[in-house]
Amino acid sequence: MVSRGAFFLLVCLCLYGCHSARTVVIDTWHSPYIAGRPLGKTLVLAYTLVPRPIVGLYVEDLWVEELNRYEVEAYTWSDFEVGVGVPSMQEIAEVLAAHQFDTLLVTQLIEFKRPNRNIPNSQVAIVETRLYIAPSEELYWSLQTETFLVNYIDGDIRRPREGDAREYVETVIQKMMQGGVL
Amino acid sequence: MDNNTQSPAISAAIVFAIQALYSQSLFAQVYVEADQLLQVIEDQQRQLEEQEAQIQRQSAALDALRQQVEELRRAIPHDPSLPPRLKNHPPEISPSELEVAIAEAPTDWPGSIQVFGSETRVKISGFAELDANYDTGAIVSPAEFITSAIVTSDRTAAEGEDGQTNVSVQVSRLKFETRTPWGGRKISTEMAMDFLRDFTTAEPILQLRKAYGRVSDIFVGGSLLLGQDWSTFTNLTAWPNTLDYEGPNALPSLRHPMVRWQRVYHPTLSLQVALEAPDERVFEGAVEVSRWPDAVFSVISQTDRVNFQGSFILRDLRGSGEPQSAVSDTGWGVNLSGVIDMPGRLAPDFFSYSFSYGAGYGGLLNDFPADASYDFYENRLEAIPTLAWYVGYQHWWTPCLYTVVTYGLVQQDNFDFQPGFAFRETQYSSINLTWTPTPQWLFGVEALYGTREDKDGAYGSVWRTQFTSRISF
Fold it and tell me: Which residues of B touch A23 (CB under 8 A)?
């Protein structure tokens, strides 16, 4: 029994010592009709429709903080919040026009991965980030990732860890730079 | 002589005069050419100015057109419920029609369908799972790695002593759920089934897993569940993510009929009290004759990073060892279990654990050792003291790849009057590598090792290698 316990501890230590990538890019799309362009003045909206419509205030704040580091003038949707919950495109369009934004950046949690048979808890989400030209609301770039951005427990999304959220944003920013959209 | 002396001066004068005349004509020609050039430049400048003016006129016209387009676009009515994802999304990555329908549905329950003419919503889900495994020793539970099913003596080839492969779809599952608003309350139901009625065979036989209804905020501020569900003693959150359907031997995992009241006192704290059916008793030498339901009490704490459940169960163990009388004993058990999310760079790995102790609760565990044993000479039923614990660790290599390692132990303190083949101890170890290429599809390989020891010292061990594919819907 002691040897089995030692084996378990040894395996745990090995796993403990292994650090993994927390965000994996699944797919990138760039409009063939719209060339790369600088973000300019950017409005950031983070939201999910699962398990229910929620705006991700924390992720929005992180996005703005990171974009500011890259000298992009960015604001969160929450700075202009019109109502509670996920805004309609009409509400967003009004804010974009009123404040003369150049770009709309949307981060949406699409789906959870639920590997456990008996509980819906999840640590992995499919998250999509999209860029729209603000005046026309035309999509010109998107990126899908599998990420540890969420912690889904007992039917609720818990606040993501700061490290995971920052790594997610940084990964997307790097891809944006590679794609010529930052 | 004079002529000779005057001739060079005259020649020089003539040459000078000729040169002067010639240079004057050259200068005149240059001036003419320069004038012509200036005229060309002025013409070109005028043309450029005209072109610039034309560009400005065209640019103004373009701006006017853009403005018209924008005004027309704004005039189109917008569906306020439509999220931005569904706007202007090109076909290459546009969501499926089902996704659109789900996203548009005015509900907080994605994937559900409104029943026509009713406020009830229905959701159907489940998975199709294929498990293929190879055992190196004798074990009589082909679809699940139940360590108490390891054969300890008189092992035969039919039990797998010489190795055995089993392929099964028994754990595949189908689940129906409904939700109906009722006043300010919510009525929800769930019915789930799988094909694992008999774990001693790989044949799929339909089995009812769950059948319950629950009404929220109905009694003393809490919800009431009536029907068959996991025992309140079970902490599902602490269930390690093994590919083996059974999971660690020490996991309390019984499903049976019950009445359960649950109240959330705080977002991080809830209380459950239940009366559960006195069934699934495991007695040695006696037949189950139930009288009182099991009483279960549990406290659950769930924070962002830590899950904890403390449960207590009280059981009336009653059976008949001889036809003329019924005997009973009191069973009890305590379970402390939970999940701890790893901090720092280890996130989102997590550690799960469970520790149980008591007497007469063994039948609730995955290994279901006997709850009690009948003493024929004294005509009494004795609850068997049982210790059960496990630990598990899930490590994420990437968001698509993880490993779960577990170890579990179940021990019973045997009585003198118990037979020699009585359960004494089992151990369960597992390690897997699981790949989830999509949220719906899971592949994995798992190595399991289990042992069983009986009261008389008989011992058996089995290695199992399992491959699993699970496609969910």
Answer: 399
Smallest CA–CA distance from B439 into chain A, residue: A113
**Beta bridge partners of residue B24, listed in sequence order:** none
Tens digit of pLDDT for each residue in A67-124? 999 999 999 988 887 666 788 888 888 889 889 999 999 999 998 888 888 888 888 9
Kindly identify which residue of chain A lies nearest to residue B194, measuring between CA atoms: A117
Percentage with pLDDT > 90 across chain B: 60
Cis peptide before B348 (omega within 30 of 0): yes
DSSP secondary structure string for all residues of A111-153: EEE---SS---BSEEEEEEEEEETTTTEEEEEEEEEES--EEE
The complex's ipTM works out to 0.82
Contact B402, B243 (CB under 8 A): no
User: Which residue in chain B is spatially nearest to A93 when comparing CA positions?
Assistant: B74
**Disruptive mutation site among A16, A52, A117, A161 for chain B (greatest number of B CBs within 10 Å):** A117
* Whether the Cβ atoms of residue B408 and residue B250 lie closer than 8 Å to each other: yes
Do B78 and A50 make contact, defined as CB atoms within 8 angstroms? no
Are A8 and B391 in contact (CB < 8 Å)? yes
Mean per-residue pLDDT, B256-268:
94
Q: What is the 3-state secondary structure (H, E, C) of B168-203?
A: ECCCCEEEEEEEEEECCEEEEEEEEEECECCCCCCC
SS3 B47: helix
Q: What is the distance between the alpha carbons of residues B149 and B197, in angstroms, rounded to a whole number?
A: 16
Query: What value does the mean pLDDT of chain B take?
Result: 86
Residue A150 has φ and ψ, to the nearest 5°, of -120, 165
